Automatic annotation (TrEMBL):
Record's protein name: Transcriptional regulator, LysR family
GO cellular component annotations of the record: protein-DNA complex
GO MF annotation, one: DNA-binding transcription factor activity
Organism per entry: Fibrella aestuarina BUZ 2
Family (UniProt): Belongs to the LysR transcriptional regulatory family.
Protein origin, superkingdom: Bacteria
InterPro entries xrefs: LysR_HTH_N, LysR_subst-bd, WH-like_DNA-bd_sf, WH_DNA-bd_sf
Amino acid sequence: MTLTQLDYIVAIDTHRHFATAADHCHVTQPTLSMQIQKLEDELGVLLFDRSKQPVVPTETGQVIVAQAREVLQAARRIPELAKESRDEVGGELRVGIIPTLAPYLLPHFIGEFMDRYPGVTIQMQELLTDQIVERLRSGLLDVGIVVTPLREGNFTEIPLFSEPFMIYAADGHDLLKKATVSPADLTQTTDLWLLSEGHCFRDQVLNLCGGRFSGRSALRYETGSLETLVRLIERQDGFTLLPYLATLDFDPIRRARLRSFAGKQPKRDVSLVMHRSFLKRSLINALQREILAHLPKMA
């Protein structure tokens, strides 16, 4: 067997379609199919069930594909080691970042990172945490910028910073009558606006607020945008919680509707996350340094 054949079976497992896998590997579909058939003949097992759409690996195929991913990761680590020995930082870096961080963190460092490392091509994808985890597992991403801990045994987490939560409320709301707010105060009201399901920030807010959400019967609105929540609160009523970085560009009017927490600040921990056998360590280390160098001071 060859590394190329292993690359082909991993591509089919990832894309679950022979034509798409062939495009990804920059070969024709007949070439890819022939190499897969050749590998199956050599091993004496069927790797994929071609009768199903999308194509799925057989039970034996799942085990072999998992091993193939490890072999390919180890092989790709060799040129990375050579680059690191020459103190080179270059290549492609595929990064996933959650939506409640992307618009507020990226502008602080991405331009400086590209200027400092012109040999790097960086591909940013804004994805939910579960999507980032899945793409890290399948090798479609190199690193994720997410809220941790993930409690994923095969992942490595590199802590970046802890980000406080802020309260944002409509004019005249009871929460704005206080200089600071305690978590207990949040459980006394039910007019909380939330992000849609799937966002880890939604779960953190619900935990802090005792599981309560908007009591409106006429309006059930789901959004993945913190800015949309802010605008709804300004035009309607209620309150929400925002991560600190999302409030840095607020004008004086919006800032007057912000409150911090009394005592120990509720926070979320943000980390770089990668598979345990991750590659491109020099690139990821450079990314970590650049984020920390340009990170705004937390409240």
